[in-house]
Design goal:
Structural class: alpha+beta
Number of strands: 17
CATH class of the largest domain: Mainly Beta
Strand content: over 45%
Order of helices and strands: HHEEEEHHHHEEEEEEEEHEEEEE
CATH architecture of the largest domain: Beta Barrel
Largest sheet: 13 strands, antiparallel
CATH superfamily of the largest domain: Autotransporter beta-domain
Number of domains: 2
Number of helices: 7
Helix content: 10-25%
Radius of gyration: 24 Å
Length: 397
């Protein structure tokens, strides 16, 4: 019953686009298009091209009398450069070979994961990136019971050895309810959604949406006997989550989709030094697993589903700190830094750490409304250069 509900959720989200992940013939035609600008297969011609992080080199010999196909008795000689992966044989033999070597092929194309091939880092790290600054590094405690917060990020990046241009958008709407004698506890929901498009021959697009409820409980609060504004607060919390991701490209004509589910545990500290002068910091641990129903993706690329389901559990630990100081009445500036470390053994060391720095300016527009504008960048990720514009706002009622 549980699997049926999960299967229905994914199908309702993405529909028929997930029913096939393309054929090897279309896969090779896309690589040929990189080299020649045409998808026509020529017998005996050597082709070479990139598929995300992997470089494929192959030659197809016509045997069935139709040079512009790869079927039946046609022979292919295939090599993935930089690896020990190579094959020579027919289409049926290639399908069997790919199933037997699925993990090695997947690792060659996606050193971190499918989503990370487009946007840098890993999918699990992006999950933390949406949650950590929205909850742990923000003042979620107000005198109001209800708080609606929204953040939008527009990112312009260069990814990979070829410096492919990537545009991405991240939206992080969230709602929380404060409760308790002094409104010291909170329960909330974050619904992050992300879109990314890579400007290269693969024409890859990524769509992701998640549900991230959380509970935050106050364990310590003390106010200075000298200064009323001097207050130290420590909270702990838990945040289960589920994110659905779909990647579409000319390489995988039917798309690749999966969900990531897991939970995080965190502690957050806020030191209110003086009026509107604050230091916030926190530590978070996250464990998650990528999953895809076995029978959703059909076709020659279906072996990737088995590989994805066999990937180990991901573990991430994050630390961050925020400084907020007033510049004028109703006008603050904040500086964030947080770093996520992926503990997964399959994530390359060059992608295991992601550091994020952001600065944003916040203006109290009304007593219950404030708006913010800022800039963010990530570093420590191999072959990634990016610049992000931040827009945000908060309504309290």
């Amino acid at each position: 019953m549980k699997n049926a509900i999960l299967y229905l959720f994914i199908f309702s989200a993405f529909g028929s686009v997930l029913r096939a992940a393309g054929s090897w013939e279309e896969f090779f035609r896309s690589i040929i298009d990189q080299q020649t600008g045409s998808k026509v297969i020529e017998s005996g011609k050597l082709y070479e091209g990139n598929v995300y992080s992997a470089q494929f080199k192959f030659l197809i010999t016509d045997v069935d009398g139709n040079a512009n196909n790869f079927k039946g008795p046609d022979i292919i000689e295939l090599q993935i450069l930089g690896t020990k992966l190579n094959f020579e044989g027919t289409k049926d033999g290639l399908v069997d070979w790919a199933e037997a070597n699925g993990k090695a092929i997947y690792d060659a194309m996606f050193p971190s994961d499918v989503g990370g091939a487009l946007t840098g880092g890993s999918d699990a790290q992006h999950t933390q990136e949406a949650f950590f600054p929205a909850v742990i590094l923000r003042n979620m405690r107000t005198e109001s019971t209800n708080n609606f917060i929204a953040r939008m990020e527009f990112t312009f990046a260069r990814v990979g050895e070829n410096g492919d241009s990537v545009f991405s958008f991240l939206g992080v709407p969230s709602y929380n309810i404060n409760f308790g004698e002094n409104m010291q506890n909170a329960v909330g929901l974050i619904i992050p959604f992300r879109y990314a498009k890579q400007d290269d021959v693969s024409e890859s697009e990524l769509f992701s949406i998640g549900l991230n409820p959380y509970f935050r409980y106050n364990v310590f609060e003390k106010t200075s006997s000298i200064l009323e504004e001097d207050r130290l607060t420590i909270d702990v919390g838990i945040n289960p989550f589920m994110h659905t991701t779909f990647v579409n490209s000319v390489i995988f004509s039917g798309g690749i989709g999966y969900i990531r589910f897991g939970s995080g545990f965190f502690t957050a500290m806020e030191w209110n030094i003086a009026d509107r002068v604050k230091i916030r910091s926190g530590i978070a641990y996250q464990v998650s697993k990528a999953y895809f129903p076995d029978d959703v993706v059909k076709g020659d690329m279906a072996f990737l589903v088995d590989v994805l389901n066999d990937l180990p559990v991901d573990h991430e630990i994050s630390f961050g700190i925020n400084f907020t100081v007033p510049l004028a009445e109703n006008f603050n500036v904040s500086l964030d830094y947080f770093r996520t470390h992926s503990l997964s053994s399959r994530v390359e060391s060059s992608n295991a750490f992601v550091s994020t720095v952001s600065i944003f300016f916040n203006y109290l527009l009304l007593d219950i409304v404030d708006v913010s504008l800022g800039y963010k960048t990530r570093f420590e990720v191999k072959d990634l250069t990016e610049h992000t514009l931040l827009f945000g706002g908060m309504v309290r009622f």
